[in-house]
Amino acid sequence: MQTALAELTQRTAAEHSRTIEALAESGAELAATRTELAALRQRTANEHRRTIDALRVVRDDGSAAWEALWKLRESDDYALAFEEDEPLVSVIIPTYSDWELMRERALPSLLAQSYERYECIVVGDAAPPDAEKAVTSFRDDRLRFINLPYRGPYPPDPRDAWLISGTTPCNTGLALAQGRWILYASDDDSLRPTCIESLLELARTRRAEVPYGQIYLHEPDGSGRLLGVFPPKFAQWGTQAALLHAGLPFLWEDPSDWLFGVPNDWSMADKMLRIGVRFAMLEEPVLDYYPSRLWTDRPDPRPEFA
Predict the structure, then answer these.
(1) What pTM was estimated for this model as a whole?
(2) DSSP 8-state symbol, 220
(3) pLDDT(304) > 70
């Protein structure tokens, strides 16, 4: 009986050992499968990104834009933007519900500019009556307000809508602009007093079609940090700190940018970079930036990549 028990114990131990080995092999196979799946997901994501980028290139028709840019550079109006003593600057401000900050921060910073030859077109994205009152309260003929009859339209997802926020108001303002230079300002940020003057000087000295400065980002805790690199990079550049030559073919913001997961301001810069628009950066802040995602209780609308 003891012999039988010993044999049974030995067989059980052997079976246990084989089971452990099989489990180890299965674990290794599972780990290998997970590694392969992760690599496959990465390849799929890369291919998806390449497809999206290719579709953007097709949409933007870079060859036609490049041709338009070079024709612009040969025109008389192109040179006047650099050679006029005081070229008119068109400041476009899209607005919806931040009329108080526009009245208390954005418009006072514009009216305090050292450069005074500008027009400001505030375009309401179906904004409330208080927005118009905020503009007219300054009694300055350089400021005018236009309100659109309805918002957007925007896609239903808040993150998608954020990507093209203000597109229609900006394009409406651009259609009405008379200036040789365009500045897309924000209704909740503050221009530094020499912003326009400094960027015009940079445009003249460097023959830059898009002169831009650094952005000082304010945190609610009183800290802050500088944004801005050369050449422009995503999350380090913004139209609100840049002048754009009014003849550029990419001043219109595209309402389809949300389909590509790209914010409208960066999409514009990226298109200009691709065809060789001349950028120049002023290495000092020209704008005080108060991101609404930090200063309000609104949920962060940015896509994950932002």
Answers:
(1) 0.84
(2) T
(3) no
